[in-house]
Specification:
This protein has 373 residues and is an alpha+beta fold. It is 21% helix and 40% strand.
Length: 373
């Protein structure tokens, strides 16, 4: 990962710290030698202005990258995570499925370092890189022609608690900033004038891909065990959690409605660790007053690998995420698109000093946009 950019204007000038570290693959694609690559990067950074996006070709490119960043790079989870929840609550009034789920979570907590180690974490900073590959929308059961080249990028992720977090993700020249200040959540890409948001603060899905064991345990505190399945030659228990109707309504808008959002966690019977995290969402978008709208169904599954201990906490350092998007309805032909992300964590730091709530404030235009709604 490249963190510093040399001063291309003055040979003895100070180096510039990149806001988002970039992977070596992205850096190498910018030129034939190091000097040219840094010069091209400096030119690219200076060219990130709104007037450049008026070109149809550039706008189409940014819209495509924004789609990838939202669908794969920075999706949100519909549940608010309460750290006060405990998997050790009495189970005498719980069903067998719920009691079994709590036992599985106790094994998971032990496998990731134990409750004292998890409770000792009050903040984190994560640096990593991603490769995203996407197919075009194709009709019916037609074969998928995946693009030959991957979209490379890097990200920096900050968190103070499940409701205080900020993500900066840069991929192939397009950047998205996503965050939550404990009251609202937002997302804004480099080709958007104003940030967008809907509903109460929610956790970033990337935290639940093995990075934040305490949030994972609290998320599944009200789950039920629905069976077993083999994942990557590991016998796993399956925990399931459905979003309640009030949460779905809070996240819906005037032109779209979220019909359901379900989450599954697959926990290894051997190690106790979560091997796979999966969720499925169905929403309908109204294109006019008369029709029933177009349905969008998104299924996402992440397989976590390379668990390592960091300050006593066992977190996943790499994995793959697969996304399938279906679009169907009376006013739309059935279309399907498949996306894949490979991610790797380069650095994890816990208990970051001087990380105040001011660090998680939304963009300055956010309040203006809310006033218009």
């Amino acid at each position: 990962m490249r963190i510093l950019c040399p001063n291309v204007d003055k040979e003895d000038g100070l180096e510039t710290v990149l806001e988002v570290p970039i992977p070596d693959e992205m850096f190498k694609s910018m030129g034939s030698n190091a000097a040219l690559r840094w010069q091209n990067m400096a030119t690219w950074m200076k060219a990130q202005t709104s007037d450049k996006w008026s070109s149809p070709i550039v706008a189409a490119r940014y819209n495509e990258l924004s789609f990838l960043l939202y669908m794969v790079g920075s999706p949100l989870i519909p549940f608010q995570i309460q750290l006060g929840q405990s998997v050790n609550r009495p189970v005498k009034h719980s069903s067998i499925e719920a009691s079994t789920a709590k036992y599985i979570l106790q094994q998971y907590i032990a496998a990731t370092g134990g409750q004292p180690a998890l409770n000792a974490v009050n903040s984190m900073c994560v640096i990593g890189h991603v490769k995203i590959t996407g197919s075009d929308f194709h009709q019916g059961d037609q074969s998928v022609k995946v693009r030959k080249s991957d979209e490379n990028g890097g990200f920096v992720l900050w968190q103070k608690n499940p409701d205080l977090w900020c993500l900066e993700l840069l991929i192939s020249g397009c950047k998205v900033i996503s965050g939550s200040n404990g009251k609202i959540s937002w997302r804004q890409s480099s080709n958007q004038i104003r940030p967008i948001s809907k509903g109460p603060p929610r956790p970033l899905r990337r935290f639940l891909q093995g990075l934040d064991p305490r949030s994972i345990a609290n998320l599944f505190a009200n789950a039920v065990c629905i069976g077993e399945k083999i994942i990557n030659e590991e016998d796993c228990f399956i925990l399931k959690l459905d979003t309640n109707q009030s949460a779905l309504e809070a996240q819906s808008g005037p032109n779209y409605e979220i019909l359901h959002h379900t989450i599954w966690g697959y926990f290894s019977q051997r190690s106790g660790l979560m091997i796979k995290f999966e969720d499925s969402r169905l929403l309908t978008v109204k294109t006019s007053r008369d029709d029933e709208g177009v349905f969008w169904e998104t299924s996402t599954e992440s397989v976590m690998e390379d668990y390592k201990h960091v300050e006593g906490v066992n977190v996943a350092h790499s994995g793959k995420t697969f996304v399938t998007v279906f679009r169907y309805g009376e006013q739309s032909a059935n279309h399907k698109r498949q996306l894949e992300e490979r991610w790797k964590i380069e650095e994890v730091d816990f208990n970051v000093g001087r990380l105040t709530t001011d660090f998680f404030m939304p963009p300055s235009d956010f309040d203006k946009e809310r006033a218009r709604v």
